Amino acid sequence: MLTVLSTRTLKADGVSSGKSAYDLIRAFGGSRSIESPDLYSVNHPGVPHIFEDTDDVVGDHFVFVVHRDEDRDRDRQNITDRQRNEIKTYKISERAVKGFENETLVFRWFFRINENMTISRRFTHLFQLKAVGGDDKQPMITITGAKRSGEDGIEVRHSPSSGGTVLQRTDWSEVTGEWLQAYCRATFSEGGTLRLIVRRVSDNANVFDIDVTDLDLWRGESREHFVRPKWGIYRSILLPDELRPDEEEVRFADFSISKVVVN
User: Fold this and answer.
1) CA dist., res. 95 & res. 99, Å (int)
2) 3-class DSSP assignment, residue 96
3) Dmax of the chain from CA atoms?
4) Which of 34, 42, 103, 176 is at 20 to 30 A from 91, Cα to Cα?
């Protein structure tokens, strides 16, 4: 049983109505919560990379797009092997959307990968739980697409302070073109816990069902350090011939972050 201490939500409010996608995201995460190519003059300006749409399954939602040959990683002109279109919480975001040591947070959202999206032998991250402070180079938890032994797949990875483990993996074809509902509950400690469920909305089948205890989910070294979520498309373009030149999209809806106590 969970006791909810706080909840913050991010929801689209409709095409050509209400606030813009970027204004809604900034109200949720803060003024610098968006890392989108069109926000940087040296990247891919003039082409919106996050916008709103609607459908009959989840209703109003956000569309994140990337372009293999035009997009890069923020304003880092020296980085040419990857591209990023993500939203995040960060240092000045309110405490309710950041995970501190020994806290338990629940993250919920929907997402839909376009049915023809291609992936490479490198990474295509769609969700990350990433430390801020301490040994924070690698994300602790990722949902990512990658080829292994020539097979396309989507997997959940855990990265401790060294090395990494694939917690679960399934075929890429099981998730593309389908709305997925995600639930992730994490306790951020050196012996933390992770409960992660991703299910297809169309048939209510679980794609992932992970329940792990005594998992290394803390990198911080002071009270100010924390863990943040990142959603979007962050992928390697080091092997461009394995990726389509077409615009790719991942749709997201109904983000929420709750701080809870497990009873």
Assistant:
1) 8
2) helix
3) 50
4) 42
> Which 3-state string (H, E, C) describes 166-190?
EEEEEEHHHCECCEEEEEEEEECCC
CB distance 176 to 170 below 8 Å: no
- Contact (Cβ atoms closer than 8 angstroms) between residue 232 and residue 64: yes
Half-sphere exposure of 248 (CA within 13 A, CB side): 27
Element of type H or E holding 206: strand 206-215
List the one residue out of 4, 5, 62 whose CA is nearest residue 29: 62
Q: Which residues contact 198 (CB under 8 A, 6 or more apart)?
A: 143, 175, 180, 181, 182, 183, 206, 207, 208
What tokens does 216 get? 């290394």
Structure token digits, residue 67? 């372009």
pTM for this model (two decimals): 0.97
Report CA-CA distances (Å) from 54 to 13, 22, 51, 60, 63: 9, 16, 11, 4, 10
Q: What is the residue-level pLDDT of the chain in tens, covering all 263 positions?
A: 899 999 999 999 999 889 999 999 999 999 999 999 999 999 999 999 999 999 999 999 999 999 999 999 999 999 999 999 999 999 999 999 999 999 999 999 999 999 999 999 999 999 999 999 999 999 999 999 999 999 999 999 999 876 789 999 999 999 999 999 999 999 999 999 999 999 999 999 999 999 999 999 999 999 999 999 999 999 999 999 999 999 999 999 999 999 999 98
What's the rounded Cα separation, in Å, for the pair 223 and 132? 11
